[in-house]
Amino acid sequence: QKVEGGFKRYLNLMRVEKVKELLTNTEKSIYEIMQDAGFTDQGTFNRVFKQNTNCTPREYRAKSKEKE
User: Structure pTM?
Assistant: First the structure.
């Protein structure tokens, strides 16, 4: 599978998928989830997550709770 932007972009996509899974299926804090997914900087984490989902991690968690 070819991902435009190379390995770093692919890695960030995989990390965001992990974050989405953890936001939906756990009660861990967003900071813990950020670390579990391999992000070390909160600013970078928020930017990458929002670029890939068009919402913040907090908004994503709230939306996933509404669907239940």
Answer: 0.87
